[in-house]
Each structure stands twice: as structure tokens, then as C-alpha cells.
Write a structure and sequence with these properties.
two-stranded antiparallel ribbon, 14 helices, 431 residues, two-stranded antiparallel sheet, mainly alpha
């Protein structure tokens, strides 16, 4: 399979299958990471203020959480099978390295599922001040599980912590594998993204109700709790993303060059907003002189490595896809900072419908931004599955996975439809 002149070998179908299943699962993973915090926050408000509305929201959101954890267990199991089925070269060569973080993720997910069950079924069965503490392990295990699985991806971007003798991994330093060079920015970036996705998604449901005339306290509080959590963390995410971009420019310069359309190594690199990359030239973009060098090293004289530094076969396969995904992620992230700021400046929730329509759009937009971030991460690392050590074409299965791809597409479509149907049934019953 060839893409933009780069031969991907037989890895194309495997990448498509893995990308599709991961793109679906990551939405559920975000909710599994951050929704417990939103639920426990609502219960804490209810306990502190003796607020029945907040308690009702917490109880209903916990039931939604139980459904999503169950569905996430299904999609996560599929992904675990795909690691061995689609990437035998990766697991054969580096399975001993990746075993610990994958194993920890499994343990933390089990703990999250167990304590979610205790939390959901503990309503009216445990004293209120005991019940809320059963939600804390759900939060902690969700965060720890996210850190474990993202540590694997971070290691694939900056591998280390092992010794190879005659092509075989002979010694592994688990500490260095887990807390690798990319861990410090990838894990916070993903966890913050999860909170933004969850917060803005939940808030968007109540914003839609507000637009339909449901102006009661239930909808106001249902909007405010997740919206406030996501709004507070959105500026932090922008700062973490800025740090991550500079780290990528240093540690994965070819990925950064494709993201930013840096064709030739040198100083005074311009920043391109939008546009497409064709045969080494950029068309249709807004060009801002020197800005890319300034963003990387705080000086227009900063030298930024370009695509010309490596042969064509070692470049990411689609600079246009990378660049536009990165631009869209940054654009949405900026907008999601400005939306809560609108309410902060007014010191109240705006009455204009423009605000509420924007709040409705914020949930899906946060999902799009998160998916774009994963496109940048995964496509940008190509043609490597383990950066600089193992090519994707060498790690992928040589078997035909077209049939499996078709089955998964049909199955996931049905699973998505069933999940939406169940959640809508619950919402109608509550209404």
C-alpha cells in the first residue's frame, strides 16, 4: 500500500483496522477516565449543600458511567486481541518490554470496573459519607489505567529502558520503560483531553435541553458542573500542548516538520495556517513569517529540522493530513478556552442563544479535537511503529485482514447504535 509516495508494505489494512477500533474506543476511554470525577463532584456538592438536585444528577450519571464502562470493556478487549493479531512483529520483538504497562492497565481497569459496580449499587445501601468514598478508587484507577496505556504509546515514540543482544531483548528496566521520555507530556495531554471531552460532552446535553426551554435548576446544574470542570482545565491543556509541540520538535523532528510544513532545514521558518502540501510546496495556506521558529525556540533564528533531513521513505506518509489535523486540534482547543471565558467575563451564564448553541457544539468539537490529536501522534510517527527501531511494515501481520475489518465495522456500528439507544431510553425515562 502506497500513500503520498511512501510504501507502507502490507500494513495499510492493519493500520486502518487498528485506527478505526482505537478511534471508537478512545471516546469511551475518555469518559471512563473523567466521568467518575464529574459524578463524585456532583455527589460532593449534594452532600455539602444538602442539594437533592445534585444528588439526583450524580446518581443518574453513575448509571450512565456503568453502561459506558461495560461497552468500553468490550471495545478494549477487541483492541487487546488486535495487538497480537495485527502486530505480531511488534509483540514478538518488544513484548517483554511492553508487558508491564499493559499488565498494569489491565489491573487498573479491573479495579475501576469493580469499584464502579460498588458505587452504582451502593446508593441507598451505604451511608452517604461512606458511599462517596467508594467513588474515589474509580477516579484513581481510571487515571492510573490511562497513564499505563498512554505510557506504551509514549514509549513507542521515545523507546528506551531495554538492552538488545543479537536482536533479542535481554534486560528491561521497567521504570525507564514506563516513565520514558515522552511520558511527561503525553500522559497529561491525554488525561486533560479526557476531562475536556467528558466535561463538554455532558454539558452539551444540558445545553441542548436549555435551548428546548428546559430552564429548571436540574438542567442549569447539570450544565454547570461538567462545564466548569472542563473550562478550568482547558487553558492548562493549551499550555501542556505547547510544551508537547516543542518536545516533538526536539525528539521527533521529522514528525514536527510534517505537522508544520517545514520542507527545508534552517532558521526563520514560517508558520502555515491551513493549506495543502503537494510535491514539496504548500498551497492555499496563510503564511506567517518566522513564527514557527519563534514557537520552537523563542527566536526567529532557531533552526528547525525539515523534511529534507531524511529520505522520502522515512517521512510521514501524509503531511497534509497531519498539518490539517494539528491545525484543527489547535483551533478547537482555543475555542474551548474562549467559551468558558465568555461566562467568566460576564460573571454569569450568557442568555444569548449563540452561547448555548456553541455549548452544544463544544461536546462533539472536543471529540474531534481529541481524534485529531491521535491522528497527529500515530500518523506522524510513520513509517515507524517503534520510532527509529521497528518499521510499521515489519511489525504488521502478513495475513489478509479485510474480512476482519468488515466484521469490526459492522459490529462497532451496531454497538454504537445500541449504546446510543440505551442512553436515550434512560434519558427519556428520567425526563
Amino acid at each position: 500500500m502506497r500513500l503520498d509516495g511512501v510504501d507502507m508494505g502490507g500494513a495499510g489494512p492493519a493500520r486502518l483496522l487498528m485506527g478505526g477500533t482505537l478511534g471508537f474506543h478512545i471516546i469511551l476511554a475518555c469518559l471512563g477516565i473523567a466521568l467518575p470525577t464529574i459524578v463524585v463532584a456532583a455527589e460532593a456538592i449534594g452532600l455539602r449543600r444538602q442539594d437533592g438536585t445534585a444528588m439526583l444528577l450524580a446518581r443518574r450519571w453513575s448509571q450512565v458511567l456503568a453502561v459506558l464502562v461495560a461497552v468500553g470493556a468490550v471495545t478494549g478487549t477487541v483492541l487487546s486481541f488486535e495487538m497480537s493479531l495485527l502486530w505480531p512483529g511488534l509483540m514478538e520483538r518488544y513484548g517483554a518490554v511492553l508487558g508491564l504497562p499493559f499488565g498494569l492497565e489491565g489491573v487498573f481497569f479491573l479495579l475501576e470496573a469493580v469499584f464502579t459496580a460498588i458505587y452504582v449499587y451502593g446508593w441507598n445501601r451505604l451511608p452517604p459519607r461512606v458511599h462517596i468514598w467508594t467513588g474515589v478508587p474509580v477516579i484513581i484507577s481510571g487515571l492510573a489505567g490511562a497513564a499505563s496505556v498512554v505510557a506504551v504509546n509514549a514509549w513507542m515514540n521515545q523507546p528506551g529502558g531495554f538492552t538488545v543482544v543479537d536482536g533479542v531483548v535481554t534486560r528491561v528496566d521497567p521504570w525507564r520503560v514506563f516513565f520514558n521520555g515522552a511520558f511527561g507530556y503525553e500522559v497529561p495531554h491525554m488525561i486533560l483531553a479526557a476531562y475536556m471531552v467528558s466535561g463538554f460532552l455532558v454539558a452539551s446535553v444540558y445545553a441542548a435541553g436549555w435551548l428546548r426551554g428546559r430552564r429548571d435548576r436540574y438542567h442549569r446544574l447539570g450544565f454547570l458542573i461538567p462545564f466548569a470542570i472542563a473550562g478550568v482545565l482547558a487553558p492548562v491543556q493549551v499550555l501542556v500542548g505547547d510544551v508537547a509541540a516543542r518536545a516533538i520538535a526536539k525528539d521527533q523532528p521529522v514528525k514536527f516538520a510534517a505537522m508544520e510544513y517545514v520542507t527545508t532545514t534552517g532558521p526563520h521558518q514560517p508558520e502555515y495556517l491551513g493549506g495543502v502540501y503537494v510535491d514539496g510546496k504548500v498551497y492555499g495556506a496563510l503564511r506567517i513569517p518566522d513564527l514557527d521558529s519563534i514557537l520552537v525556540g523563542f527566536s526567529p533564528d532557531t533552526v528547525v529540522q525539515g523534511l529534507d533531513s531524511v529520505p522520502v521513505e522515512l517521512r510521514p506518509p501524509s503531511p497534509t493530513l497531519l498539518h490539517l489535523s494539528f491545525d484543527l486540534m489547535v483551533l478547537i482547543g482555543t475555542a474551548l478556552v474562549l467559551l468558558p471565558l465568555w461566562a467568566v467575563v460576564l460573571r454569569r451564564l450568557p442568555r444569548t442563544k449563540w452561547f448555548w448553541w456553541a455549548a452544544v457544539a463544544a461536546g462533539p468539537a472536543a471529540v474531534v479535537a481529541m481524534e485529531c490529536g491521535w491522528i497527529v501522534t500515530e500518523v506522524g510517527r510513520q513509517p515507524w511503529v517503534v520510532y527509529g527501531l521497528l518499521k510499521t511494515s515489519d511489525a504488521a501481520t502478513t495475513d489478509d485482514v479485510t474480512g476482519i475489518l468488515t466484521f469490526v465495522v459492522i459490529g462497532y456500528t451496531g454497538l454504537a447504535a445500541a449504546t446510543i439507544w440505551v442512553l436515550r431510553r434512560m434519558a427519556r425515562r428520567w425526563r
